[in-house]
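Tokens as discussed.
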């Protein structure tokens, strides 16, 4: 029975170790950025729906307009978010320069 407790503890520790590594690698920050490809896919899916529906009944027209409205709203939010991210990056870079932490080829500021 004791052995199992040990192995369980080890697996739990292993899990937290992985979690720590993942956090350290900055995976969490990268995951929170809205995926523009997902946004494009959504757009394509909506366009496909429209083509399949084809008809021009008032209900479908309404649906189409509401979807277009939603999409434009999403793109607006994405744009604002991108601008905010850029500003934050600039601020961080300036702060790091002031504190003398910045190398000319720092990966943090030159992501491909």
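Sequence:
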């Amino acid at each position: 029975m004791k052995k199992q407790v040990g192995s369980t503890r080890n697996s739990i520790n292993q899990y937290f170790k992985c979690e720590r590594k993942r956090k350290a690698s900055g995976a969490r920050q990268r995951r929170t950025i809205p995926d523009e490809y997902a946004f494009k896919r959504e757009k394509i899916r909506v366009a496909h729906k429209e083509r399949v529906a084809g008809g021009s009944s008032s209900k479908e027209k309404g649906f189409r307009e509401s979807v277009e409205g939603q999409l434009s709203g999403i793109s607006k939010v994405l744009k604002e978010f991108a601008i905010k991210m850029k500003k934050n990056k600039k601020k961080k870079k300036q702060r790091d320069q002031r504190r003398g932490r910045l190398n000319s080829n720092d990966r943090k500021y030159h992501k491909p």
